[in-house]
Amino acid sequence: MNGLNEIVVIWSAECRRTLRSSRVVALLGLYSLFSLLIFLAAVFLRSLVQQLAEAGMVPPSEDLPLSVRGVYYLSLFFLPLYIALMGFDQVSGEVGPRSIRYLTVRSRRSSVLLGKLFAQTTVLLGLVFVLDLGLCVYAAVTTPGFGLASFMRYLVHFWVASTLFSFAFLSLTSLCSSLTTSPAVSLILNLTVLLSSLILWMTALAEKTHPLRSARYLSPLRYSLGLLSPETAQVATSAAAYVVFSVIFLGGALAALRTRDL
Fold it and tell me: Which UniProt keywords apply (predicted)?
């Protein structure tokens, strides 16, 4: 088989296995509960924003409700942890017991990694699309003037932004899983990197003249808010940053898997 066929075969098999996994099903349930909490928060935020608007403290919005924008950012903040829990044993789960040898005998190592990565990407983005669709339906029902054009524009914008954001962290999970031989160590490494990323992002709270403040640009979380910015340049900068992070993480994962002893 050529490389593309190998990836497709592995992707198909991994999609079926992922959807049958009890852990993934439990995580899907957890994500669904989190989504429900998000929508309840949206209802509360909408009521609060309406009260502020009636008091003249917040200008009314006829486009995208502030509550929906806030809920979207909350869902993005939760995604890296969800991705880590879903895919921490992507490679390390098969390296430890040596079962990955059965795959690498018949397929390229890069095809194995990409097939597994794309399978988890497919499952995750399907779930994210449902959440984004729900947000747009909520906005259409509760916001006067939010017509079909706005519905489609924000649905596409939400989903593309979620795709760029998610794929960077999916690639990070692949890197952590490719560097380790134990799923437990892989999860710990992944969570450590996520916590480090959060700490780097929080350096933005330092004084403007503090030299450590520039460290925030090294955090993938730093660019999440720019994905929904009204300024095209800021959206493009954030999107480019996630493409760069994806290339770095995925390139590192491929290099690690190609050079290690399986």
Answer: Membrane, Transmembrane, Transmembrane helix
What confidence score (pLDDT) does residue 58 get? 47
Confidence of residue 246 (pLDDT cuts 50, 70, 90): very high
* 15-67 confidence digits (pLDDT tens): 888 777 777 777 777 777 776 776 676 666 666 656 655 555 444 555 666 66
DSSP code of residue 61 = -
Domain count within the chain: 1
- For 169-203, give one letter per residue: b (16+ CB within 10 A) or e: bbbbbbbbbbbbbebebbbebbbebbeebeebbeb
Is residue 172 within 8 Å of residue 249, measured between CB atoms?
Answer: yes
Instruction: DSSP for 174-223, please give it.
Output: HHHHHH-SSHHHHHHHHHHHHHHHHHHHHGGGS-TT-GGGGGGGG-GGGG
Determine the structural domain holding residue 30 and report its residue range: 3-259
Residue 128's nearest CA partner among 153, 165, 172 is: 165
pLDDT tens, residue by residue, 131-180:
888 888 888 887 777 788 888 988 998 899 999 999 999 999 999 999 98
Q: Give 228's DSSP letter.
A: G
- Determine the Cα angle at 182 with ends 180 and 185, to 5°: 75
CA–CA separation, 50 vs 65, rounded Å?
10
Let me know the angle formed at the C-alpha of 110 by 108 and 112, rounded to the nearest 5 degrees. Answer: 75
The answer for 188, left when phi > 0, alpha when psi is -120 to 50, beta otherwise, is alpha
CA 167/CA 249 separation, integer angstroms: 10
Amino acid, res. 243: V
